[in-house]
Amino acid sequence: MNAVDVREAITRAHHEEWGRVVAALTRRFGDLDIAEEAAAEAFATAVERWPADGVPPNPGAWLTTTANRKAIDRIRRENKREDKHREAQMVYDDDPPEPPGAIDDERLRLIFTCCHPALAVESRVALTLRMLGGLTVPEIARAFLVQETAMGQRITRAKAKIKVARIPYRVPSTEDLPGRVTGVLAVLFLIFNEGYLATGPDTDPVRHDLTAEAIRLTRLIRALLPQDGEVAGLLALMLLTEARRTARVSASGELVPLNEQDRGAWDAALIAEGHRLVRERLATGMAPGRYQILAAINAVHTSARDVRDTDWSQIVALYDQLVRLDGSPIIVLNRAVAVAEMDGPDVALAAVDRLADTLAGYHAYHVARADLLRRLGRGAESRAAYDKAIELAGNTAETAYLTRRRDQLG
């Protein structure tokens, strides 16, 4: 195995095993700092040793074993008090029995720990993206549109609060689950979005490891709460979005927008499952939540065999319903993009321009403006909007697409 193969193996192991390693160490040592640092040291050791020793047959087991040793070494170094000594001795014993949860999954335990109500919502999401998804602080900061230093401080404070408040590392009881699931769904949605179109310039534009993990964990939560409409809605939304993943990036590494995708390359099985979930929720007659409406919008898109067959009136009606639940600027922006297909780009541009103050730092706002201005024949203004979108976009595939679109203006 050459050096390139080893680097790819390490990158793949980080994508696939980071969450497992951190979750396993958190369960054993009960400390997020120890788990995160030991996991990072294990991966650093892999970078040093695998090029010479070769990639182990089971990278995840090797990393977990190495991280456990790193954690034990750290605890030994801190053995300055008797209680620390006892703690170090305990790591050699078998894990004490714990009350079983509805589903015994270490990463699910980690999600509920990081999403505990004692933490601010922003901290729950950021901490889980870091601890479970393995995203870097810069990647998380881009997802939240905040400075890296502020995000780093937010994650540090969240870990400290978990320790001080003695937040348990477990899946909540069946009675407590409904009240705890909303924050978890928000976390999983952001993890999925980061995988579907990664924000980092030095990462793969589409990270299947993150989308697959978000879907896997959402399936677990659906098994816990089979009657929860928003859990079903989020799963349907993920499946219908994931179905288009292989058509999202061209062979040359450029983002392919929905209206240009090869619909024959979409995953028919995922689409069928997503549509079934949407139909099941509609059949209940219950008022849908945010994720259910977003899933229904995606169901309309994926029902059209050709982009020209898209039922834009239905999509706008669904966005009208969504705006009543979530009037955030991003939802209003997405509605305006749909309105352009019904009422024309001039009507949509007026709605988009009203968002200038709130979305000036959001690259998709400038992408939408650039496209609408292009359709209106306002080339110079469109080019300026593309320039701003390119400046703010972090994903290499999206940057390539936007650059080509800008250059086509002449």
Automatic annotation (TrEMBL):
Molecular-function annotations in GO: DNA binding; sigma factor activity
Region ranges (Disordered): 78-99
The keyword Nucleus belongs to this UniProt entry's keyword annotation: no
Domain of life: Bacteria
Comp. bias intervals (Basic and acidic residues): 78-88
Keyword vocabulary terms for this entry: Sigma factor, Transcription, Transcription regulation
Domain RNA polymerase sigma factor 70 region 4 type stretches: 111-162
Pfam families: DUF6596, Sigma70_r2, Sigma70_r4_2
Annotated ranges, domain RNA polymerase sigma-70 region: 20-80
UniProt keyword Transcription regulation present: yes
GO BP term (any one): DNA-templated transcription initiation
DUF6596 domain span: 180-280
Protein family according to the UniProt entry: Belongs to the sigma-70 factor family. ECF subfamily.
Protein name in the entry: RNA polymerase subunit sigma-24
Top-level taxonomy: Bacteria, Bacillati, Actinomycetota, Actinomycetes, Micromonosporales
